[in-house]
């Protein structure tokens, strides 16, 4: 792949105007922020592992815009990307994360007992509940940039850590390249299996290289706690179950994550974290908590109400189709989750989901009875 | 994008066995040739512009095999790739090009007068005739590796050269990113427009980066001579017309190419060429002449004959669907072209197509009349 650092030096033979990308048709965070002057200032830099400015922005150059979502348009190749290219990434982070300033501090709170309620979302409406986050392992470069040796080392370390889990977390690892047909069928039926990325957003950043080498899925025997290894991040940790008991989902999430982190620390490879950005992940949109807590919920009436979008905005929630980030909703069932990642804690974000979904279900019930919901419209959180 | 040279150095911290790709599911030329020992010897090397071994082979790792064609599985990032990585590429070249040895010399012959016949292929069977080749401009990196500045440099120089063509070669350049809807529609109707690559073979080697920046199509007013700029190679030069007058197509091809080369020489550069590999192109399968001369020909009876494949093989011809390399034939109409690229001259290859297609049409006519073709079977060329 190009943009080796010798090649980066080579490129410096060309003037800034000659190398600066054409972003005239683009609509993503990177295109909004990257000026020619900024490009000139940053183009000769590289992180210790050799990630360059062009590496950071390539996905945004190759993907001008997305119909449903304002994409970020850049990725980190390692922990240091966020420091070396802060002139570009700080404004993007601020734009994406509601004005989060370079001097702000992020709060981590994985104490599930701090969550109020969340165990009684109406299962007639809330079909399933899920919390996911990502983690990066310190000392390794990230999926856009890592070599096969690094990726395999991340896998090895992760599987060792996961294999020490016991009790409700006891489980098994299924590497993608050794899966039997039967195992694959089961994982698909459970909605656990992740496949080689097809999204051009991910492909443009080099995250699918060497697929399926060192990628895999670990889950507990009860199929309620799941870890993806080496997909878009080193680790994606997911707690899920049918119905509306978000409290239990979040408890399992926090307890499992803490256990995993302890094991990694014992091997002197903690998670990438700092007090400004929280957990450091591949995509700037996932900084902070990296947490998306959400439900699949039936809102056929509320979703067609003229104030639906306004309500979501005020509740700091986001809607997606039930197929994931790139999909549309089907049959009035929506994926509703927290919009924020950075600047509020895990507990605070899951609280917003719990309270917000509870309110929306109440609104749906009112609309079913033909009643107005004007008196229930919430204030901006 | 990864594999910067700092990153290449970082990778050397891992043992060769930790970095060596898993090729157990693979079926391409690279996977047949690459061994752990070769990988170990070459992994610390790079070309002057910074192209590394992993850059060469990434597309072959990410694309284990193709249903219709034995793919090459590697690309060059610059002219020097073929020298620095000769230990890997020479055996691949030998395997792909009929036993071509590292000491062999390639002959270039673009003198159209040397072609015998070719002006009388039966247009009731031969629907169209076409000759294409590629050219790389010395001093610039190739599409898997080039920066935006380099790609634009290639475009600028190419357009200047093409704009000075006159007579029946006089034409116009249509940059992909400035095309009007009307121009785009016309180019589609003419079957001239090339689009962003979708083939994973090309995407995995980084050839679609920054699309459509620096890409375009030039064609003459009579629409018989066409040049693609910055698609899979710096230049793809195509001469084509309806019917079976391959001689005229080849005449125009040679005249146009020679003129373009002179124009580049006037600018102080030239095409990448050496006496061993002939014209140097991105894919090792296109070395030598880079020439594919072919016809779309109706051979519904012949193509169902038990000896069809054997006949093609003896004639050193290859069949494809009429949609190009990744397609299947429709309605008995095939794309028939030379199988060879390296070790034969342009004239020799087009002669094989002319003679071979003439024979195939004779065979088709015999089969139509219910006659046998046994006495027409050719010897191995």
Automatic annotation (TrEMBL), chain A:
Q: Where does ATP bind?
A: 128-132, 191, 236, 292-296, 320-325
Classification of source organism: Eukaryota, Metazoa, Chordata, Craniata, Vertebrata
Question: What InterPro entries does the database record attribute to this sequence?
Answer: ATP-guanido_PTrfase, ATP-guanido_PTrfase_AS, ATP-guanido_PTrfase_cat, ATP-guanido_PTrfase_N, ATP-guanido_PTrfase_N_sf, Gln_synth/guanido_kin_cat_dom
Q: Entry's Gene3D superfamilies?
A: ATP:guanido phosphotransferase, N-terminal domain (1.10.135.10), Glutamine synthetase/guanido kinase, catalytic domain (3.30.590.10)
Instruction: One Pfam family, please name it.
Output: ATP-gua_PtransN
Q: Which residues form the signal peptide?
A: none
Q: Which UniProt keywords apply?
A: ATP-binding, Kinase, Nucleotide-binding, Transferase
Name the record gives this protein: creatine kinase
Instruction: Tell me where in this chain the Phosphagen kinase C-terminal domain is found.
Output: 125-367
Q: What is its EC number?
A: 2.7.3.2
Q: Which GO terms describe its biological process?
A: phosphocreatine biosynthetic process
UniProt cross-references to CDD domains, sorted A to Z: creatine_kinase_like (cd00716)
Q: Which organism is it from?
A: Oncorhynchus kisutch
GO molecular function terms listed in the Swiss-Prot or TrEMBL record: ATP binding; creatine kinase activity
Q: State a GO cellular component annotated for this protein.
A: extracellular space
The portions of this protein that span the membrane are: none
All residue ranges annotated as the Phosphagen kinase N-terminal domain in the record: 11-98
UniProtKB/TrEMBL annotation, chain B:
Q: Which residues form the Phosphagen kinase N-terminal domain?
A: 11-98
UniProt record, GO biological process: phosphocreatine biosynthetic process
Give a yes or no for keyword Kinase in this entry: yes
- Residues that hold ATP according to the record: 128-132, 191, 236, 292-296, 320-325
User: Which EC numbers characterise this protein's activity in its record?
Assistant: 2.7.3.2
Listed PROSITE patterns: PHOSPHAGEN_KINASE, PHOSPHAGEN_KINASE_C, PHOSPHAGEN_KINASE_N
Q: What class of enzyme is it?
A: transferase
MF terms (GO), sorted A to Z: ATP binding; creatine kinase activity
Q: Has UniProt tagged this entry with the keyword ATP-binding?
A: yes
Any idea where the Phosphagen kinase C-terminal domain is? 125-367
Tell me the first and last residues of the signal peptide: none
Q: Which reaction does it catalyse?
A: creatine + ATP = N-phosphocreatine + ADP + H(+)
This entry carries the following GO cellular component terms, namely: extracellular space
User: Which UniProt keyword terms apply here?
Assistant: ATP-binding, Kinase, Nucleotide-binding, Transferase
Which PANTHER family did the record assign? ARGININE OR CREATINE KINASE, CREATINE KINASE B-TYPE
What family, per the record? Answer: Belongs to the ATP:guanido phosphotransferase family.
Q: What is this protein called?
A: creatine kinase
State the organism named in the record. Oncorhynchus kisutch
What's the gene? CKB
């Amino acid at each position: 792949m190009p943009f080796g650092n010798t090649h980066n030096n080579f490129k410096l033979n060309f003037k800034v105007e000659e190398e600066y990308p054409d972003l005239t048709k683009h609509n993503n965070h990177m295109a909004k922020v990257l000026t020619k002057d900024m490009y000139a200032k940053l183009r000769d830099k590289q992180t210790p592992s050799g990630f360059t400015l062009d590496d950071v922005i390539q996905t945004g150059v190759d993907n001008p815009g997305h119909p449903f979502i304002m994409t970020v348009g850049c990725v980190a190749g390692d922990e240091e990307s966020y420091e070396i290219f802060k002139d570009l990434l700080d404004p993007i982070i601020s734009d994406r994360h509601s004005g989060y300033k370079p001097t702000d501090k992020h709060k981590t709170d994985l104490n599930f007992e701090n969550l109020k309620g969340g165990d009684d979302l109406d299962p007639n409406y809330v079909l399933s509940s899920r919390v996911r986050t990502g983690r990066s392992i310190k000392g390794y470069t990230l999926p856009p940039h890592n070599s096969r040796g690094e990726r395999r080392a991340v896998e090895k370390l992760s599987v060792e850590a996961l294999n020490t889990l016991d009790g409700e977390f006891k489980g098994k690892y299924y590497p993608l390249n050794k899966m039997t047909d039967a195992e694959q069928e089961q994982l698909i039926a459970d909605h656990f299996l992740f496949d080689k990325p097809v999204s051009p957003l991910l492909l443009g950043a080099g995250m699918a290289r060497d697929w399926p080498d060192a990628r895999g899925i670990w889950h507990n025997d009860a199929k309620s706690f799941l870890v993806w290894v080496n997909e878009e991040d080193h680790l994606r940790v997911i707690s899920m179950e049918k119905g509306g008991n978000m409290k239990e989902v979040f408890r399992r999430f926090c307890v499992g994550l803490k256990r995993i982190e302890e094991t990694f620390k014992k091997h002197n490879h903690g998670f990438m974290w700092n007090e400004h950005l929280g957990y450091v992940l591949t995509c700037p949109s996932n900084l902070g908590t990296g947490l998306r807590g959400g439900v699949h919920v039936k809102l056929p009436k509320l979703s067609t109400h003229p104030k639906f979008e306004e309500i979501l905005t005020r509740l700091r929630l986001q809607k997606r189709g039930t197929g994931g980030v790139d999909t549309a909703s089907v049959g009035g069932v929506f994926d509703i989750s927290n919009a924020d990642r950075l600047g509020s804690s895990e507990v605070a974000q899951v609280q917003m989901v719990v309270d917000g979904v509870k309110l929306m279900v109440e609104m749906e019930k009112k609309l079913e009875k033909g009643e107005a919901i004007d008196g229930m419209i919430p204030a901006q959180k | 994008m990864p594999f910067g040279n700092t990153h290449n150095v970082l990778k050397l911290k891992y043992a060769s066995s930790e970095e060596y790709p898993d090729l157990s599911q693979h079926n391409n030329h690279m996977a047949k040739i690459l061994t752990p020992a070769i990988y170990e010897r070459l992994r610390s090397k790079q070309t002057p512009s910074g192209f590394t071994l992993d850059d060469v082979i990434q597309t072959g790792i990410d694309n284990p095999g193709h249903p219709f064609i034995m793919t090459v599985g590697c690309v060059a990032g610059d002219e020097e790739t073929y020298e620095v990585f000769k230990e890997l590429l020479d055996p691949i070249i030998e395997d792909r090009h009929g036993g071509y040895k590292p000491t062999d010399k390639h002959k270039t012959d673009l003198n159209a007068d040397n072609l015998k016949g070719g002006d009388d292929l039966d247009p009731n069977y031969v629907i169209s005739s076409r000759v294409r080749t590629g050219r790389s401009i010395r001093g610039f990196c190739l599409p898997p590796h080039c920066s935006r500045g380099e790609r634009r440099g290639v475009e600028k120089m190419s357009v200047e050269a093409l704009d000075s063509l006159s007579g029946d070669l006089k034409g116009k350049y249509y940059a992909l990113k400035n095309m009007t809807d009307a121009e785009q529609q016309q180019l589609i109707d003419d079957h001239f427009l090339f689009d962003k690559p979708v083939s994973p073979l090309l995407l995995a080697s980084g050839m679609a980066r920054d699309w459509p920046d620096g890409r375009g199509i030039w064609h003459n007013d009579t629409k018989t001579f066409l040049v693609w700029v910055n698609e899979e190679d710096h230049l793809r030069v195509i001469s084509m017309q309806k019917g079976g007058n391959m001689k005229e197509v080849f005449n125009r091809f040679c005249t146009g190419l020679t003129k373009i080369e002179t124009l580049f020489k006037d600018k102080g550069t030239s095409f990448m060429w050496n006496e061993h590999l002939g014209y140097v192109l991105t894919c090792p399968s296109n070395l030598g002449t880079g020439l594919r001369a072919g016809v779309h020909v109706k051979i519904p009876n012949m193509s169902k004959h038990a000896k069809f494949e054997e006949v093609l093989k003896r004639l050193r011809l290859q069949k494809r669907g009429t949609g190009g390399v990744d397609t299947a034939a429709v309605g008995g109409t095939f794309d028939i072209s030379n199988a060879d690229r390296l070790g034969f001259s342009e004239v020799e290859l087009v002669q094989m197509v002319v003679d071979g297609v003439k024979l195939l049409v004779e065979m088709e006519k015999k089969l139509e009349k219910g006659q046998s073709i046994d006495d027409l079977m050719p010897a191995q060329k």
